[in-house]
Amino acid sequence: MSTITTAHHGSKRVVWVLYEGCEAERFFIESSHEIIEDLKEMAFGNSRRHYRVFYLGVHMRPSERIPTDTSCEHPIHFKKIESGSSTLLVLINFFFLMCRYFQHPGRMKPFRML
């Protein structure tokens, strides 16, 4: 049996969250906090960019609304971004750098791969 817990307590409401490696727990948020970015800021402060948010297995963008039907069985899941996740970004940046190099070979100095 799943209990929906988006209960309102005064100006706060409850959502269920799951931090990676922990059990689901209740999290009290202000009623004015409506989007995922607000939730990440409350939970992690300046470290929020190191986490991705999933709900029911689907990645949630920072601008999406906080789900109202969370429960202990179906919490919002915070996953820490591993440092290896930036490999794709490095490859994309390298690709664009190479494109610029071959488009303007006289303006860019050759470089060595590390």
Largest sheet: 6 strands, mixed
The share of residues in helices is 10-25%
How many helices in DSSP terms? 2
Q: Which regions contain 5 or more consecutive residues with pLDDT less than 50?
A: 1-5
Averaged pLDDT: 79
Assembly type of the chains comes to single chain
The number of distinct β-strands equals 6
Q: In terms of structural class, how would the helical and strand content be classed?
A: alpha+beta
How would the blueprint of this fold be written?
Elements: E1 8-9, E2 12-19, E3 25-30, H1 36-44, E4 51-55, E5 58-60, E6 76-80, H2 87-103
Parallel strand pairs: 2-6
Antiparallel strand pairs: 1-2, 2-3, 4-5, 4-6
Name its key features:
six-stranded mixed β-sheet; 114 residues; disordered N terminus; elongated; alpha+beta; 25% strand
Summarize the structure in words.
By secondary structure, the protein is of the alpha+beta class. Helix content is 23%, strand content 25%. The chain contains two helices and six strands, in the order E-E-E-H-E-E-E-H. It has helices at residues 36-44, 87-103; strands spanning 8-9, 12-19, 25-30, 51-55, 58-60, 76-80. Strands 1, 2, 3, 4, 5 and 6 form a six-stranded mixed sheet that branches. Strand 1 (8-9) and strand 2 (12-19) form a beta hairpin. The longest helix is centred in the last third of the chain and has 17 residues, at 87-103. Residues 1-5 have low confidence and may be disordered.
